[in-house]
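Appendix B, example 12.
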Amino acid sequence: MNKRNLSLLLAIIAGEAIFMLPFLIPRLYRPLMIETWNLTNTDIGLAFSAYGLSAMISYIIGGPLADKYHPRILMASSLALTSIGGFALIYFHSAANLIFIYFMFGISTTLLMWGALIKLTHQIGGENNRASAMGLLDAGRGLSAAIMSSVIIFAIAFFVDESNSASLSLTYGLVACFNLAVAVLLIYGLKGLSFTASSSSKWSLKESIEVLKRLDVWLLGIIILSSYCGYKSVDNYSIYLVDVLNFDLKESSHFTSLIFWLRPISAFIAGFAADYVGRKIKGGRFLNLFVLLIVASLLQFAMTTGIQSLTSLILFIVLISSSLAYALRAIYFAVFGDLNIPSHLVGTTVGIVSLVGFLPDMFFGTLTGYLIDNNEGAVGYNYVFMFTGTAMLIGSACSLYCYFRSKRIN
């Protein structure tokens, strides 16, 4: 395997491993966490908000770090620190401790990992295949999540009772150990990888301020924010199946595991489709984002129309909505090539865009948890889907504007 393919493979593994502890496990076992750890949806929402608060600060600081230091050091350190939080959750899982650990997760997963991961992937993809590289990154991450979630589900079901707290402890322990193993792989696997770091002669505060002044950078942030709301909405599907469709805990976790298998397929197709359209049409990647966002928005609104009795239709919409959320996530950073960002400022721009785009980490969990906890039955979920649909509709308008703007400028 050549160095480029090995680097992409390691980026894929690391890029998913880092988020398994804070995000994958709650998606699988959120109803079980609530039941066995005496939590509420609001408690979990506050934990995600704490994550978002620390992540916002980390995006800004982490961007310039990614432009300055080799990704293998940054990414390996990120994985090691995150694993410590996973081990801590085994013993300290009260609401207050959960919120504090998630605050630390926001730092460990973002400050050292995110900017380095995106810049590394851009470097691997080059000028003409950035969307394909991003699509492969997210498809590979999705495949890793799907495999890991399935392994967790079947391993836990085999060794312990899937409906008690021991299954959660075992899950957190296994994933934390996996993070440590991936950190070691990065240290050795990315050794010798050529990396263009910014020097004092290249990176400057003045250039960074010029990036801040660009309208298209802020619009991209809004596009990512709206897409990320759709992605975050997937977190609520497991508890929605229990509360509204009357699934039991095991059925809910198994169906959620199935959803994860859609991610590699959706991301793979979206990445190559975006590059193909981008080569044929000026600003074509923004056009892809517009189509995905408008369809995803309409599906969210469809979930609020009182069709809960049609279980098969609801499950179909959940699957399609998840696919679109994963497709959006795969390509929304790929449009950097259309923005003509200098290579030595990619990390800094990732930090700026992420500051806006990932704001839902601060409020989405708390807001949706509150809506679900304080509105009986399907009503709270309808409010969640209406909010998500509106956010994605705004993102689709920004995408369409960027498409026409890109055509006019280029």
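The radius of gyration is 20 Å. The mean pLDDT is 84.
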